[in-house]
Amino acid sequence: MEILVLINKLEVFYTYWGYTIVFLSSLIEISPAGWTIPGGALLALGGYYAYSGELSLFGILLFAWLGAWSTFILAYLLGYSTGYGLVKKFKQEKNALRAKSLLEKHGATILTTSMMANFTRFWVAYIAGAESYSFIRFLFYSAVASLTWGSLMVVVGYLAGSERVRLEATLSRLGVLSWILFLAIIIFVYVKARQEFKKSKL
Fold first, then answer.
1. What integer is the mean pLDDT of 51-76?
2. CA neighbor of 200 nearest in space, from 126, 128, 120
3. By C-alpha distance, which of 89, 101, 90 is closest to 128?
4. pTM value?
5. What are phi and psi of 118, to 5 degrees?
6. Number of folded domains that form the chain
């Protein structure tokens, strides 16, 4: 199957399930299991297909934001209710101490910036809950972080959608090479994600 056929088939899938895909991708991407899916790429695809008008760009942005924000809130509530229980269970003591130190020194700034970084964002939110950081403040800063991250991914895809004709023409000329490039990108992203995941376990 040609890559252009795959792009068109995915578009049909996104037409029916796009908002759900974006919400779940965003939700999972922020969680400790985020390395298992290309969450950012799935959000970008939502933006890409939104350019054609089949999906609402506002809807894609909204569900990308709500998915990430939901995970942050759940992480906070888990930390608030279980203390450092999950930290010990998942052997994240090092990351927890780093997150606690950052929260004490930088407060709101670190809440916003660290929540946009892979593999630390969930634990920063979790430690904020465990340390009983102001929930109202947390809601605000986590909303800003999740909106910024989600918007960035979606807008990148939307901009790519604006060049869709040129992009698809290039892929068509590449033929089999487009599949090789596509697989190389997937392998690269997967390997990098695994490396980061291992680092977070140290």
1. 93
2. 120
3. 101
4. 0.75
5. -60, 140
6. 1
